[in-house]
Specification:
The protein is of the alpha+beta class. It contains 1 helix and 8 strands; from the N terminus they run H-E-E-E-E-E-E-E-E. An 8-stranded antiparallel beta barrel has the order 1-2-3-4-5-6-7-8. The longest helix is centred in the N-terminal third of the chain and has 15 residues. The radius of gyration is 18 Å and the shape is globular.
Length: 97
Amino acid sequence: MNRASALLILTLGLSACGRETYTTWSCTDSAGNKSPMILKKAQMQFQDRQYDYCGSLGPLSYFDLKCPAQIQDSSNIFTTSSGKLVSNTNEFQCNEL
């Protein structure tokens, strides 16, 4: 591999690191009410609030306005694989858009 090719590959690799992780979901509660949810980098935007990512345990990701000492006590628990979101005591089924 020549030097120009190596430099091009390195530049492309570094530019990919700068891309934002952004996923939009449509979440429905048990009454059929829909709410959009956006996962952007280490934040969740849901019902006009922005929550910080507090960590993960297995398949569960935890989000809160201010992360508690025990992440399991977070106000929002999201399971990406099933799309299940528990926000406070409300349960939502979310589908990726």
